[in-house]
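Example (one chain per record):
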Amino acid sequence: MKKYIIAAIIVLATAFYSKAQNTKTANQGFWVIESNVHAPKTQIVRFYNDSSKLLYEEVINTRLNIKRKKNQQLLNQICNKLHEQKEIIEGNKLIAVAFNLKH
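Predicted structure:
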């Protein structure tokens, strides 16, 4: 009997503290950062919509640390703004301005 009570307490405790994942995130589309071994300080940042159509592309001459949460959030914000415009933007320096990079 003691085993059943302990098992029931464990099941109830884990059910009480469990949390469901959000169904859909606010991000629409996605971004990809491409780098090259032969040119380590140059990266290409590309933004795509949900159907994998290229929305924007920019070459930057510095390395972005995409493991940092702040950098990921900035890239997600740019991606959302580009997705809202629904057209390809050329010639702007969105990444350089957002990250305060030298253009």
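Caption: The beta strands are 30-35, 43-48, 54-60.
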